[in-house]
């Protein structure tokens, strides 16, 4: 009965929401959807919530045995690296003191050489009013436009539709004439509104083999919807309500090696299913019960928007709350459970962030197993949401300060934990073209939820993927002056800047809240865009380069720069743009390619790089990637879109 009590309390605040001075009742869930296939009700959950560790810690050599309800042993290496580099005392000023070339223990063909800088990044306001607050954000291939959208439930935004027809509000006589989805040119800031009919609130998505966005789920009439956006100047949303077997609200979508999509979880649905082809529909027979999501369900959830990544061996890594497993998508069985990650919860509403670290390929790659690692940072205590959202007065507990790293291709893999410079939840993790990770956005205390977090974490932090063993793995970078709290987002751009958008801690569009609904869009220039390093930026000659490549084949990228190029200072990476929402970056993937051959001076200051494409879709799922050529650790002026195909 205790679980029923908790669940009742959680649901009640969702029923009434204040928007522009008026209270209204959220509409009921989409009628006709079966509730909780295979779910026996809240009393079937473990009595301590499933995510709390209640048993003794029993070490096991392969980390595969479970104790208590945690599903695995907790065995970690903890390292405190002390104070991070940089105090951030220079604002946005250029803080370069000196620029020198230093060898580092590289991440590719031998040692990669990178230029050293003390530049801590700079911020620019790109667009004053995007029209919508970017709860969801993804960069679309080839057209270089950022897709941003929020939710239709509030029936308002900061931009009106250019004309009829307006959206009919389901179950009412109302019309909603506001924009809830836009395309933004990432160079000019030009905005094109898109019409939506089915609610996208807290949905998921991924790019298909042709670069189209396939988005799943949402709220109410959008919860079982599949929607597709193609790449053209006049393309709009194609929406397919009723396409999913379960409603998917706060679910995670992952792309498999053959290009299919799976979608995991969502509120009240501890299940998964394969996303149907365009125009087709799933039934309950296509839904698979996933008890792991029942076991990891705290009284306040903490397992929504699970972190899901395709491993290089074709298995799927799923992290929820504080536990993680490998699922074979073909046999639909869990084949391994990793040690529990201690120190709180990591998924919504505790809302840490995660990424798949760079996958490093060699020339003429022939390894049977290609290592793949995940990085999970921040989050909150298991009861952070209860304290901030349900308790009065609100209590904002400190967020987590740790980052944990795990090789998901090793069955005896153990978490390696280090401390960040500051606490962070509601943040985002952008994998940069160089392989390092930018941790940005978020708060230092509280939880996800309406007005449930405090202390914006304005300083991005750079996490060095690999170092020479000296100094910190973290560098504190220059701060923004715009808080980016709940519902913030990002996108890596072709010029290697980071687009930063969103932030809405309010159920609607409010200007007079503690943290107003944010429609401004910024760009952040990371450390490698130090003006003193501009000499190292190469230009990709697109019309002399291959932009459609079969798996395992060799292909050519031509570059032009200033002066002679040293191959040892070259790095070529490909990046799959993620679908970003709620601190989760679905299908974000950076792969360093092996350089097979380097042909100098094919013409003046022009060089050909011969590369090998990834061997299969488990390493790089089919579709479009941004290809970056980095020299001395400095990305090229503009990436090139490359499509990898079976």
From TrEMBL:
Keyword Cell inner membrane among UniProt keywords: no
Annotated protein name in UniProt: Galactose oxidase-like Early set domain-containing protein
SUPFAM superfamilies: E set domains, Galactose oxidase, central domain
Stored InterPro entries: Gal_Oxase/kelch_b-propeller, Gal_Oxidase_central_sf, Glyoxal_oxidase_N, GO-like_E_set, Ig-like_fold, Ig_E-set
Residue ranges of domain Glyoxal oxidase N-terminal in the record: 135-528
Originating species: Gossypium barbadense (Sea Island cotton)
Domain Galactose oxidase-like Early set: 546-643
Keywords: Signal
Record flagged with keyword Signal: yes
Gene3D superfamilies in the cross-refs: Galactose oxidase/kelch, beta-propeller (2.130.10.80), Immunoglobulins (2.60.40.10)
Extent of the signal sequence: 1-21
Pfam families assigned: Glyoxal_oxid_N, GO-like_E_set
């Amino acid at each position: 009965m205790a679980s029923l009590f908790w669940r009742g309390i959680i649901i009640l605040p969702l029923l009434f929401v204040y928007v522009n001075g008026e209270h209204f009742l959220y509409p009921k869930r989409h009628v006709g959807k079966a509730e909780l296939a295979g779910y026996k009700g809240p009393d079937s959950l473990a009595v301590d919530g499933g995510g709390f560790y209640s048993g003794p810690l029993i070490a096991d050599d392969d980390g595969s045995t479970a104790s208590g309800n945690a599903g695995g042993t907790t065995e970690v290496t903890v390292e405190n690296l002390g104070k991070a580099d940089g105090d951030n005392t220079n604002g946005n000023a250029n803080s370069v003191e000196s620029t020198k070339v230093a060898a580092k223990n590289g991440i590719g063909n031998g040692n990669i050489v990178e230029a050293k800088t003390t530049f801590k990044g700079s911020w620019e306001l790109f667009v004053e009013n995007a029209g919508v607050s970017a709860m969801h954000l993804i960069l679309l291939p080839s057209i270089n436009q950022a897709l941003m959208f929020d939710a239709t439930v509030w029936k308002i935004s900061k931009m009106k539709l250019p004309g009829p027809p307006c959206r009919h509000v389901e179950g009412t006589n109302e019309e909603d004439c506001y924009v809830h989805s836009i395309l933004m040119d990432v160079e000019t800031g030009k905005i094109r509104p898109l019409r939506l009919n089915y609610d996208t609130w807290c949905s998921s998505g991924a790019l298909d083999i042709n670069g189209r966005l396939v988005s799943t789920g949402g709220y109410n009439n959008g919860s079982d919807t599949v929607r597709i956006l193609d790449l053209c100047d006049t393309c709009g949303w194609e929406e397919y309500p009723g396409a999913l077997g379960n409603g998917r609200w706060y679910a995670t979508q992952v792309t498999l090696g053959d290009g299919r999509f799976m979608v995991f979880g969502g509120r009240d649905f501890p299940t998964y299913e394969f996303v149907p082809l365009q125009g087709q529909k799933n039934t309950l027979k296509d839904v698979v019960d996933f008890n792991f999501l029942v076991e990891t369900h705290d009284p306040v959830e903490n397992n929504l928007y699970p972190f899901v990544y395709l491993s290089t061996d074709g298995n799927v890594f799923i992290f929820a709350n504080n536990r993680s497993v490998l699922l074979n998508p073909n046999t639909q069985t869990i084949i391994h459970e990793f040690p529990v990650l201690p120190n709180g919860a990591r998924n919504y509403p505790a809302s840490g962030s995660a990424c798949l670290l760079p996958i490093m390929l060699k020339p003429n790659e022939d390894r049977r197993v290609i290592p793949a690692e995940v990085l999970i940072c921040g989050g909150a205590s298991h009861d952070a949401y209860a304290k901030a959202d349900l308790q009065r007065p609100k209590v904002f507990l400190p967020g987590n300060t740790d980052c944990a790293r795990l090789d998901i291709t090793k069955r005896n893999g153990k978490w390696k934990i280090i401390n960040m410079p500051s606490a962070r939840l509601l943040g985002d993790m952008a994998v940069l073209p160089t392989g390092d990770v930018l941790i940005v956005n978020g708060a230092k205390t509280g939880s996800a939820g309406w007005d449930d977090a405090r202390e914006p974490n304005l300083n991005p932090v750079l996490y060095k993927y690999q170092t020479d063993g000296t100094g910190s793995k973290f560098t504190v970078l220059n701060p923004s002056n715009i808080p980016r709290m709940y519902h913030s987002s990002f996108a890596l751009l072709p010029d290697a800047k980071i687009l930063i958008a969103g932030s809405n801690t309010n159920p609607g569009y409010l200007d007079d809240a503690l943290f107003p609904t944010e429609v401004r869009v910024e760009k952040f220039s990371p450390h490698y865009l130090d003006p003193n390093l501009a000499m190292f930026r190469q230009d990709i000659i697109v019309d002399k380069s291959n932009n459609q490549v079969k798996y395992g084949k060799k292909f050519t990228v031509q570059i032009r720069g200033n002066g002679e190029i040293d191959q040892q200072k070259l790095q070529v990476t490909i990046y799959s743009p993620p679908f970003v929402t709620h601190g989760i970056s679905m299908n974000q993937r950076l792969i360093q390619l092996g350089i097979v051959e380097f042909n100098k001076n094919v013409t003046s200051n022009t060089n050909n790089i011969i590369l090998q494409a990834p061997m299969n879709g488990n390493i790089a799922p089919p579709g479009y990637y941004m290809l970056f050529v980095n020299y001395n650790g400095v990305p090229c002026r503009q990436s090139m879109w490359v499509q990898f195909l079976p």
